[in-house]
Structure formats: C-alpha cells, structure tokens
From TrEMBL:
<keyword id="KW-0457">Lysine biosynthesis</keyword>
<dbReference type="GO" id="GO:0009086">
    <property type="term" value="P:methionine biosynthetic process"/>
</dbReference>
<dbReference type="GO" id="GO:0009088">
    <property type="term" value="P:threonine biosynthetic process"/>
</dbReference>
<dbReference type="Pfam" id="PF02774">
    <property type="entry name" value="Semialdhyde_dhC"/>
</dbReference>
<feature type="domain" description="Semialdehyde dehydrogenase NAD-binding">
    <location>
        <begin position="67"/>
        <end position="184"/>
    </location>
</feature>
<dbReference type="InterPro" id="IPR000534">
    <property type="entry name" value="Semialdehyde_DH_NAD-bd"/>
</dbReference>
<keyword id="KW-0521">NADP</keyword>
<comment type="pathway">
    <text>Amino-acid biosynthesis; L-methionine biosynthesis via de novo pathway; L-homoserine from L-aspartate: step 2/3.</text>
</comment>
<comment type="similarity">
    <text>Belongs to the aspartate-semialdehyde dehydrogenase family.</text>
</comment>
<protein>
    <recommendedName>
        <fullName>aspartate-semialdehyde dehydrogenase</fullName>
        <ecNumber>1.2.1.11</ecNumber>
    </recommendedName>
</protein>
<comment type="pathway">
    <text>Amino-acid biosynthesis; L-threonine biosynthesis; L-threonine from L-aspartate: step 2/5.</text>
</comment>
<feature type="signal peptide">
    <location>
        <begin position="1"/>
        <end position="24"/>
    </location>
</feature>
<dbReference type="Pfam" id="PF01118">
    <property type="entry name" value="Semialdhyde_dh"/>
</dbReference>
<comment type="subunit">
    <text>Homodimer.</text>
</comment>
<feature type="active site" description="Acyl-thioester intermediate">
    <location>
        <position position="192"/>
    </location>
</feature>
<keyword id="KW-0486">Methionine biosynthesis</keyword>
<dbReference type="InterPro" id="IPR012280">
    <property type="entry name" value="Semialdhyde_DH_dimer_dom"/>
</dbReference>
Amino acid sequence: MKISSAAVAIVAVVASSLSSSAYGFAPASSSASRSVNLSPRSSSSRQSSRHATTMTTTLRMSASSFNVGIVGATGAVGKEIVGVLEKRSFPVGALRIFGSERSAGKEVDTKFGRVTVELFSESSARECDVVFLAVDGDFSLKHAEAICEGNDGAVVIDNSSAFRYKEGIPLVVPEINSDATKGKKLIANPNCTTAIGLMAIWPLHKLFGLKKMVMSTYQAASGAGQPGMDELMEGTRSVLSGEREVAENKIFAHPLPFNVIPHIDKFQENGYTKEEMKVTWETRKICGLPDDFPVSCTAVRIPTSRAHSESIVAIFDKPVDVALARKALEEAPGVKLVDDIANLKYPMPLTATGQYDVEVGRLRKNIAFDNALEFFVVGDQLLRGAALNAVVVAEKMVENGALKAKAVV
Ligand SMILES: NC(=O)c1ccc[n+]([C@@H]2O[C@H](COP(=O)([O-])OP(=O)(O)OC[C@H]3O[C@@H](n4cnc5c(N)ncnc54)[C@H](OP(=O)(O)O)[C@@H]3O)[C@@H](O)[C@H]2O)c1
C-alpha cells in the first residue's frame, strides 16, 4: 500500500493532537515532522472578539485537523495568511509553505513550527487538504485547477483575480455569501477594495435596498505587495535623507512618496482602470445584483503603508434613516462603527491597520441625492481584503462540509 508524505504528516499530527490538543493545533514534537519548532511567533495585530467567537464555534464543530498549504507565504498576503491561521487557531495539522526558487529552502518560524519553504509543484500542493494561493493571477490560472482536480485534489482558495469572474466559481465574502462555497473546491477571494467596502454596504443594502454606488478610494502602497511597500519606504527615505529630490519608481507608474496617483492597474477601453472595474464586477457577483447594476469607482494610490480607505456614496431604493443605519453597522459582523466626530473619532489607516474589523464612520445623509448615505470605510486590505477573508472562507467550508481532512490511506 502506498502511503503519501501528506498522509504521514497527517498521521503524525493527528497522533500528537490526540495527546496534546483537542483540535490538533499543537505542533508535533517528533523529529519525523518537518515543522517542529515549538516557539510561537509573537502576535502584533489586534483582533475582534466577535471573530474569535466565530472560530471557537467552528473548532467545536470540527474534530479534524487539516494539512494546510500556502503558496507565496513570503509575500505580503501569504505572510498574513500564516498569521491569521495562527491567531484564529485554525486546526492546522501540518503547514506546508511553497515558493519559487527565490525562497525555496528558506525557513519560516510559525506557531505550527519551523517550516522550510518547498519549491512549488502541483503534485505536492495536491497532497494538502486546503491550499491558499497568494501569488499572481498567471500562476493561479496555470496551477489552481490542477491542484484541486479530482477527489484527491485539495480545496484551493485563490487570492488573485484569475477566477473571480468565471461562472460556477464562487467569489466569496463569507459574511455575505459563504453558502456559495458548498460542494466547491476552487474559491476566489475578492479584490481587497471590494471586500472592504462591501462589509459596510451589505448591512445597509439589507435595510434600504442598494440602487447605485459611487466609491472613491485612497489605497495603500502594500496593495502592490511587498515590492510596493518597499518602494514607498525606500523612496521616502531617499527624499528625507536628501539623497534624491524625487523618489525613484519601478512598481508604481509615478513616484509615490509625497504624491497621490489616480491610476491602479491597467486602463480599460471605457476610461476606468481594471481596479475600478473590479469593484463594479465583484460587487454585482458577491451581492447577487444584476449584471448592469450601477457601481462606479475612482481608485487612487496614496503614500500610506497599509489599509485602504474608501469614501462611499450609496443611493438606496428606500428613504434612509441614519440612526437605523448606525445600528445595523454596529451589529454587523466584521464591522466596527467609529463615528464620534465630537471626539475626533473616525476611520483611519493608522487605527484600522492590523484589525480584523473594517472601520466605518463619517456616516451622514448625502445632500446631493435622494435616499443616499455617505460614509468613510477603512480596512486592512491584507487582512479583510485577503488573508482574513480567505481563512474565514476555509472556516466556513469546514462548517458546511466542503473542506474535509482527507482520509489516511
Ligand atoms: N497586496 C494586497 O493588498 C493584496 C490584496 C488582495 C489580493 N492580493 C493578491 O494576492 C496575490 C499575492 O499578492 P502579494 O501582494 O502578497 O504579492 P507579493 O508580496 O509580491 O508576493 C508574491 C508571492 O508569490 C510567490 N511566488 C511568485 N512566483 C512564484 C512561483 N513561480 N512559485 C511559487 N511562488 C511564487 C513569491 O514567493 P518567492 O519569494 O518564492 O518568489 C511571493 O511569496 C496577488 O494575486 C494579489 O493580486 C493582494
């Protein structure tokens, strides 16, 4: 009988979990396991108790631990996926990290032990129960379907835009449409800007019925990944040190330090950018709205490091009531109402960074349109817009049975 390395890993971890943890969360201490450093990584980000409660429920429902793979864990999103799995105590049996030649062989310290980055191959990724893809769209187009194909493939949760608009592939913000994951093996995680905005829009849509939406964004450098963040930091340093008058740019179309750039992703024939059209296309798909539903966005890059901000004008079918809207936002999972202008409290990237909840504030009746609300939303795009969303999708799939630990052969 052939026993795969994944099966060996699962056996080792399940055995260790039986003795040390009800949910298979404690790392194995056997030298046979490749991820056996027991020192937990320190946690810097804050998280909401509402999410922690959700995960406790999930864990109680799940007797299994999972063989989890991450492709791109050295990048901006992938690093956060490791952190979210750790902080939410996702029942990781064995963690496997895959990268390119650039990072293969490097070691990554995680709460699940020290993991050596493996050179990616479809066959290794298929051995996992669930694989988070945090690489670009071309990579996902090439490999995602092959990783999840057949009964013995892995569930794939893809952070790129490769499959977001493909019929039959769910595009999921779990607080809105997690049911769409039932019976599926390939799930698309939404564009970060869309995911953040919809956390505020969805409870208001349920209350008043969304008719149109206009969004203007203020997006952080890390939206362009680790290289984008590095370019902002290095460019700012070079200007402040007097080394250069204007920073160099390779990642962004223009120097970002001390500038704003009204251009993210490629320009389309209609004059919008692809980033802007993603907000339109993805709002329609996630919220189950018609294909011609009117959503317009202007996406702007600003020289902040992390967390995207959005000014939203939402026009509704029904007359709006600010007090009711406020209550709905206060009660919405994944949302934190930060709206106390007397005390200068409103959403900002500095306060939203590292938070699981999206901050919503500056809530007011818009004076230019009937039945319209205007508000400001800030969310950590690496968390709600990527890593957190992906891990909560996996949690929901454990709950609804779409994600199961593979049987040991
Ligand atoms: N940044 C954001 O705010 C954000 C938000 C939502 C979604 N996304 C999406 O998430 C994905 C990742 O974005 P990111 O910002 O994290 O990018 P990033 O910081 O540039 O990281 C890219 C990762 O991909 C890995 N990689 C590249 N080529 C590979 C290959 N051939 N085989 C295996 N691994 C490979 C890199 O690993 P090596 O070092 O080994 O090359 C690196 O870990 C993208 O599709 C992006 O559009 C990003």
